[in-house]
Queue: 4 jobs
Job 1
Amino acid sequence: MTKRRLPRWSELRPLLQGRPVTLNPTTRRLQAAASLEDLREQARRRTPRAVFDYTDGGANREVSLRRSREAFDRVEFVPSVLRDVSTIDTSTTILGRASALPLVLAPTGFTRMMNHEGEPAVARAGARAGVPYTLSTMGTTSVESLALQAPDTRRWFQLYLWKDREASKGLIRAAAENGYEALVLTVDTPAGGLRLRDVRNGMTIPPALTARTVLDGARHPSWWINLLTTEPLEFASLSTFAGTVSDLATQVFDPSATLDDLRWLRAQWSGPLIVKGLLTAEDALAAVDAGADAVVVSNHGGRQLDQSPTPLEQLPAIAAAVGDRAEVYMDGGVLSGSDVAAAVALGARAVLVGRAYLYGLMAGGEAGVDRALEIIRREMITAMQLIGVASVAELTGDRVRLR
């Protein structure tokens, strides 16, 4: 029989250690987020439904969106043991320059709708994390303003080819004059994807004050107060537009763009040129032949063509075909540091993330983006240690497979 006794105070005292009191509610909330899924749930609670769905959703039945996520669920790492993983180096080079992670903050449209701090907050967080940030043509901060508000960030500019080529040339010129490092041409938008969540929510840009949105606003007062007491919410490059995102794509983007237009763009821009939205080796090689310095294997986060190929599954063949002629990146479904490690092992120089940092932005503004990047970095270090690799260069194809 076990003999029982009363514990001594000296034995109890080490167990009675409370956590430090955090007075700032945003800091307290973000510290409680252990994963990007936690940040996603915080974002869902803190923003109106239409705004959250705009960020979280995809096109049509969202088959591509689900498959991108499920592809990472099929990842199986092949670990080695008894390796010195006491020090982990997550750094790499992107476009010939050092990056603290194989990660780029992707372009996202209408970012100030998710949180009033918008693109500058994301760019500053990117600078602190040591990774590039990409400003979208559909951003709510201008090329010039972002350069002033985030001068230490590696800034890329994402371009859609507009029907109005002179307008496109003006954006290219502004990016060059304001120190943007690279130009990212998105090519998978000859038409706008049918995003049914936006249709069902009556989601317009800017958000319309209908009876439904006013009622939803009662549940999210801080979001509406921030919206109504800061600068008007509008596209920095297209301030007169009103309607849905699909309407915008139909009215503004050029469905007649071809490889000749990519060659034209190459002649307009002297810096690194990245082509985003490729899903076949044939298209990737054609883009490189036309002057691209890098390509992004992407299905636009599942927001354009539903039931399209899954980027992670297409990545190895495209990386093998392109070889060392250009850098290969990928996006779609990345929601953890181990996802980043898997994509690199399958051939990506770096991954682009959008929803991952937007969840953080919606959950807690600039500090929320910091938290999202901190989570990704911590998870990547842990994954690398458990795989048995000490550097990004060791994340090779023999370390991962898709079940």
Job 2
Amino acid sequence: MNITWSCKAFNTLTPDELYSILQLRNEVFVVEQNCVFQDCDDKDQQSYHFMGWQHNKLIAYTRLMPAGLAYEEISIGRVVISPSIRRIKIGKELMIRSIDKLHELFGKMPVKIGAQLYLKRFYESLGFTQSSDVYLEDGIEHIKMIRN
């Protein structure tokens, strides 16, 4: 699969890129997961946006956050793959590239995430370990995980 990867600070995103990001996040987090929540949480402006494009369509995305924004550690959030391409299993590539870019941007240090509980094994395969009890976020079971 031919995917073009890019990473941009919020203030360098084009209007079309920002629209594509919000559209994909809404498609999955609001519509598919039937979860009403405030996606625009004032963290986007201080984050980097890691994007995977195929034929000018955003198909994969993560939000890369500096230490102190979501957690004391650097963090990856809003991990999303377009439902139209999930069958090709690019989630692992997206996360590996995101971790590499996060370390390039902020230095090699521990990474903390808030993960949906059903994805625990997936994140463990990337070196994350559970660091909290299960908690509900927007009606979905989550756990905090860390990768040292």
Job 3
Amino acid sequence: MSKICMVARNDKRRRMVEKYAKKRAELKAEGDSEGLQKLPRNSSPSRVRNRCSVTGRPRAVYRKFGICRNVFRQLALEGKIPGIRKASW
């Protein structure tokens, strides 16, 4: 489990990206690079990290499900993810 502050920081970045999305798009369309630089750093979408919604783990996160591989495996074996079944051949 990751630190709570890291998850909170990432959530703050997500909110900031949503807040400045429209303004950022307008500045990009105008080609105003100085205006873009004056925006907060955390308003850039590339600063947001994909994290597991259950544990907050930053690596090995499946975008489709929003969870990391460890949690995915656990939930799949318990049958809690519809349409997912352990392979056997």
Job 4
Amino acid sequence: MAISFESALGIHDEALLFRARRAEVLSNNIANADTPNFKARDIEFAHVLEGVMQPKVKQAVTSSAHKTELLEPDLAADMMYRIPHQASVDGNTVEVQQEMARYTENAMDYQASFQFLNKKFSGLKSAIKGE
């Protein structure tokens, strides 16, 4: 009987990748806290989950000059600009304390996803050994 990793791992592997990408976005926000007119961005897990559950729409490439390497088109569609609680004079929308709190929360979620994935692999390993 063959083991399907997709069904065995569930959504945990995708969640781990999502958390890693969100960490990049949040750390980019923190790094640009002093950049004038920088707009803070974020990725919402609920929007990404909706995209996973619904069929994907493929982007038509009509020219070889079109570039999609900057961001994955699916990820770029899920990124949103953040509305600050208090506007900055220079147009920057990064609120460092909130970004750091979100980054910390995301790091804990990453760790939880990693632990879930590790437990799944441990279970698969035990099943293969017949324990």
